[in-house]
Structure formats: structure tokens, C-alpha cells
Amino acid sequence: MTKESIEALFQNITPYVVDLAGKLLVSVLVLVLGFKLVKLLTKLLSKSRAFSKLDPNVRSFFNSFLSIALKAVVIITVAGILGIPMASFITILGSMAVAIGLSLQGSLSNIAGGIILLLFKPFSIGEYISVDGVEGTVSEIGLYYTYLKTPDNQKVVIPNAVASNNTLVNVTHQTTRRVDLKFTVGYDSDIEVVKDILLGIADSHAKIIKNPEAPMARLSEHGDSALVFVLRCWCKSEDYWTVRFDLLEQVKVAFDKRGISIPYPQLDVHLDK
To answer: What is the pTM of this model?
Structure first.
């Protein structure tokens, strides 16, 4: 190849290289600035007055969805700057969407699960739930996952498909809860005395309420080595654990003072010679 042909080649290539370099530079700038703008817009939207009036669950889900949609617009814009034909680009995106959809069926089911959670609202942000063996307070409902905070301050991530397809217990949805406790006493104990002790403790507790039902104490069964009493009372949902722990402690103290024994399981063994 002669010097003249090399120079001619460089002269022909240079405009294309300069044009491509310019497009790449602009594309990178648009991509970086676009993603930052998306982050800023979603942040401003989340703080707007109109957005704050929406249900907290809808806000969390919509924020995630909007962020993904706007980033997709930025990517399409960058493709247009690079000169990729939109028809071809859309075809490629369609093929990629099918391939990604087949490989990410779990993720798509999570999105569908998130929509179901928003429509039927089995729980809301701030409520305490139990699902699939884990429990905690709902801190966020995202596009793919629901986030819980456990009482010991751990973060639990639950796929939306799991939250929408499994048996779920919303512990704090109701304003009141019933406390059910069982106590065992010896067979020589006076039934009426035990009932009076249990009801007296329940009636004197400041956080126990008499609506929808007054405290109840009854003999529930004859155990193998003890009489089993049940104590049922109602309290506000936020007071449940306080009431439960207080009753357990106070009943033990009261039984000790009145000489009521709490028997251990016993086994009689008879030996024949």
C-alpha cells in the first residue's frame, strides 16, 4: 500500500471516526445525565404534595416503576443518538424482552404479585405481618420485593410473588387483639380460687380492656399430671406483648403467694418382680 493510498484512507475514515466519537461522547453524557435526572425527578415526585396524598403502598410501587420506565426512555434516546434505526432497535428490544421474560419468570411473577398486593391491600406499610415463616413490620413495598423490619432490627426481603401467593397473617390490622394463656396447677388446687386469681390479675391490669369481651378464666382440660386453665382477655394491638408478659409474671407470683403449685410432668413406673 502506497503512502498516497494510506493518506487517502485516513482522509476518508477521519470524518466517520470524528462523527462516531462525537456521538459516543454525547451518548455517554446523555446516559449519565439522564440517569441522574431520573433519580432527581423521582425524588422530587416522591416529595410532592399530590404524590404524598397517595396510599403509601402505591407510592412505593409507583416510584420503582417510574424509575425503570424513565431509564428505559433514556436508553432509547441514546440508541437514537448513536444512529441505531428505531424499527431495528424496537425489534431487538422485543426479542430481548421475550428472552429476558423467559429467563426471569420469577421476577415477572414478583411484579404481578406487587400489583396484586396494591389492588387487594392485604397489608400496608407500618403493619406487622407474618408470611412464609418470617415476620416483621412492613417498611416498603417495591416493584419486586416487600421489605420487613424485624423486632430485633433486621431487614427481611420477601419476593412479592411469595407475599401474594402464601398464607399471610396481618397481626396489627385490627386495633385489638385477644391474649390467650394457659396455666397448669396441681389436681389438689381449688378451681374457684385459681379462677379468682386469674380474673383478679386480669381485671386489675390497666391495659386490658373489656370490649369486645370481659376477661374470662375457665378450667379447659384435665391434663396427665395437672389441671389446665385458660385465661382470655383483650387489649389494644400495640399492648399485646406487654400484657402477655405482665400476666405470665404476675400469675406466677400470685400462685406462689397462695401456695398453688405448678406441677412438672410426672411419670409413674411400676416394676413387677
So the answer is: 0.59
CATH code of the domain in which 254 resides: 3.30.70.100
Amino acid at 207: K
Q: Confirm whether 57 is domain-assigned.
A: yes
A 10 A CB-CB count for 167 gives 7
Structural domain span for residue 226: 176-258
Show which of 76, 103, 130 is a domain's final residue. Answer: 103
Q: CA-CA distance, 99 to 93, in Å (whole number)?
A: 10
pLDDT of residue 69: 80
| Distance separating alpha carbons of residues 195 and 187, to the nearest angstrom | 14
Q: Which positions ≥6 away from 215 have C-beta within 8 Å?
A: 198, 199, 202, 203, 208, 231, 232, 233, 234
The pLDDT mean for the chain works out to: 84
67-102: pLDDT as tens digits = 878 888 888 788 777 777 666 666 666 666 665 555
CATH of the domain at 151: 2.30.30.60
Higher-confidence residue of 231 and 15: namely 231
Integer Cα distance of 115 and 109 in angstroms: 10
Task: State how many domains the chain has.
Answer: 3
